[in-house]
Specification:
Shape: globular
Number of helices: 11
Order of helices and strands: HHHHHHHHHHH
Largest sheet: none
Helix content: over 70%
Number of strands: 0
Distance between the termini: 26 Å
Strand content: under 5%
Length: 271
């Protein structure tokens, strides 16, 4: 029950912050813009459906959602730890686990509500007036996107648990985002070009290397979407490159970073 009280209060406090409204508005506007533009990119011969829209939308979401998730989560716990209010809160019948769960539910809920609402409207933009609604695949994509947001909010909160000041949390969170989202693709493309230039590959990375570079959450999100949601997309390669393996790794990202960070946080002296 205590975590629910924390979640309710944190939800209200966080939602009332101007920075939160700006961040969530960016996600909503990007999603709606993708829904507006997608029908214009489809040829007259091809069908415009919400299922095929999912793969297109992934390209819009895999940069913005991670950034917003990290920025929503990075100050969640460390701000109270830095101010001393966390120790006061823990002197009440409230545990560290209550704080973690309450804040995670609160901030993930804010991002999830934004994703669900904006994707619902974007789906309507795709369907109206000549598109087709593939309901179950689209609902699956909405759930996947919400989980993708939860992964990155969890990473932001993990950072908040690991350090003792907001500045360090911000630097570490942005660094993780920069390495996994911005630098990762650049390194992968450079590696592919280097191996092709040496005559080792014909432009595609070998399956084992594809597995390694595909461990990044955004690439897993795309592979799952292509395998389960978009009927026009295919997932090729060895069995360990399948959408099912990607789904398992997706779940590992969902619980792993935050769980490991909490194990360390649970034994830290907060004074």
């Amino acid at each position: 029950m205590n975590w629910q009280l924390i979640a309710r209060k944190d939800f209200i406090d966080t939602a009332n912050q101007r920075s939160t409204r700006v961040l969530l508005s960016l996600v909503a506007m990007a999603t709606l813009l993708a829904g507006y533009i997608y029908p214009l990119t489809v040829s007259e011969e091809a069908a415009t459906t919400t299922a095929t829209f999912s793969t297109y939308a992934v390209g819009w979401l895999t940069t913005l959602v991670p950034l917003v998730g990290v920025l929503l989560g990075y100050a969640s716990v460390v701000s109270e730890r830095e101010s001393g209010s966390l120790l006061l809160k823990l002197s009440l019948p409230i545990s560290r686990e209550d704080v973690l769960v309450g804040k995670y539910v609160s901030r993930t809920g804010l991002l999830t509500a934004t994703i669900v609402g904006s994707l619902a409207i974007a789906g309507w933009l795709v369907v109206y007036p000549f598109g087709t609604l593939d309901l179950l695949p689209f609902v699956g994509f909405v759930v996947l996107t919400a989980l993708f947001g939860a992964i990155w909010t969890g990473i932001g909160m993990a950072v908040s648990l690991l350090v003792s000041t907001k500045r360090r949390a911000l630097v570490l969170g942005v660094t993780v985002f920069f390495l996994l989202v911005i630098v990762w693709d650049t390194v992968v493309n450079a590696l592919a070009l280097a191996l092709e230039g040496l005559g080792i590959t014909d432009g595609e990375l070998p399956d084992p290397l594809q597995f390694v570079v595909g461990l990044e959450p955004g690439r897993l999100f795309r592979r799952i979407t292509e395998g389960f949601v978009d009927p026009n997309a295919t997932v090729d390669g060895a069995w360990y490159l399948s959408e099912w393996i990607a789904l398992v790794l997706f779940v590992v990202w969902l619980v792993g970073p935050l769980g490991l960070a909490y194990l360390r946080f649970s034994g830290v002296d907060l004074s």
